[in-house]
Amino acid sequence: MFKVALLVAFIATIVGNxxxxxxxxxxxxxxxxxxxxxxxxxxxxxxxxLCTHMVYTFVGVNADGTIKVLDPWADLPDGGGKNxxxxxxxxxxxxxxxxSLIAIGGWIExxxxxxxxxxxxxxxxxxxxxxxxxxxxxxxxxxxxxxxxNQRGGEPSDRENxxxxxxxxxxxxxxxxxxxxxxxxxxxxxxxxSYIIDQVARHVHFINLMTYDMxxxxxxxxxxxxxxxxxxxxxxxxAKLNVDxxxxxxxxxxxxxxxxxxxxxxxxRSFTLANPGNNxxxxxTTGAGAAGPYTRQPGMLGYNEICESMRQGGWTVxxxxxxxxxYAVKGNLWVGYDDVESVGEKCDYINKxxxxxxxxxxxxxxxxxxxxxxxxxxxxxxxxxxxxxxFSDSQSPPNPPTNTPSTPKTxxxxxxxxTAVCNKEGYARDPKDCAIFYYCKIVNGQxxxxxxxxxxxxxxxxxxxxxxxxxxxxxx
Length: 476
Prior knowledge:
Blueprint: H1 2-20, E1 23-29, E2 53-61, E3 67-68, H2 72-75, H3 84-92, E4 99-106, H4 112-117, H5 120-137, E5 141-146, H6 158-174, E6 179-185, H7 188-194, H8 197-203, E7 206-210, H9 243-252, E8 260-265, E9 267-273, E10 285-288, E11 300-302, H10 303-311, E12 316-320, E13 325-330, E14 333-336, H11 340-352, E15 357-361, H12 377-387, E16 426-429, E17 436-443, E18 446-453, E19 458-461, E20 466-469
Parallel strand pairs: 1-2, 1-15, 2-4, 4-5, 5-6, 6-7, 7-8, 8-15
Antiparallel strand pairs: 2-3, 9-10, 9-11, 9-14, 12-13, 13-14, 16-17, 17-18, 19-20
Helix pairs in contact: 5-6, 6-8, 11-12
């Protein structure tokens, strides 16, 4: 009997350890293959051993329930493209147990889901098309990123329709062994509008909480991107703009702890100080900080951009002890970000509450080249704390073999749009049709525009870089 008891205890320990293994979800922003210099990442630069789940972003959704490939040249092998889908799946297979998912939606797609999910026929068509997509490209599942139900042009019925979509997806996925995740707005003032939380949780394998962008240059006050806790100065709704408050809200509404995956950003939010002499948290600002050399987006700096800039000197780094996060100042530039220490504390927090794991948005702004030290310092810290695994650069798997032709040195991109709107990289609205916009980029010295269409009745708003109600968009 004693031996039997020992065996039972041993098996229980093994089962408990398996159940307790934390997820490390690694998002990959596929557009980063176009970034310049040290900011340009290739799929072969990703170390899948550091991830339990890798997520390729994004594909879109059309009003008829079909799936839209947003960047055929980057995603597909046709016409000398970069073959991103197939390369990503092959890269994931280099790490036994790592799952490769594809994300559908994102900020630009916005309320397109609202129209599709509201109709049982188009909703069913979307489910079937998602299954066919997984079968065609051999991904292990989908991450649904509807930003956000009942907001940004959506309807109150979006909340129920989102649950219906997830229920139908889970039923279809289970019979085929596919994974279903969601990325959600985390803080209460957004989540309370968008989600029936206990029902969302019932139908998905895990929930990626976007616990970042708690503040930004739109507030004209220097504040941290993703504080773990509030500070004493935070009152009212401001006191809920932190990781802990968001997690506890989702738990209070019925989300199981082991399904909650806490988002950690590998980027910071930056500001231009109104007065460089007043540079504490809460200092007044005049707007966004200057764009970084790789991300090239005012008000945002990748961790790789921050650490490289710090190597050049001139920065003062401080920690907000109540919020458990760092911030840095150089002249009139202020940035709140996460570093290895704050990532470690957040992972300790995840262990303490027995949450499901962590997700990184996103791998291409971690120090993936190892310019400032060992490669992937933020992801490595997550693995150390959550999985008890220590990695070195040499443990990155070799580039996977491929049966597809290599990308030619020269390609012929599609011609520019007839309106010739591309004169700089980034988003540009079609001057003849407010519902059409482009992402403009340069490939081999020529403009390569990707065309997007806003849902009927809306228009592209260059101020918020998203589709918006037409009456809110200047010039439309």
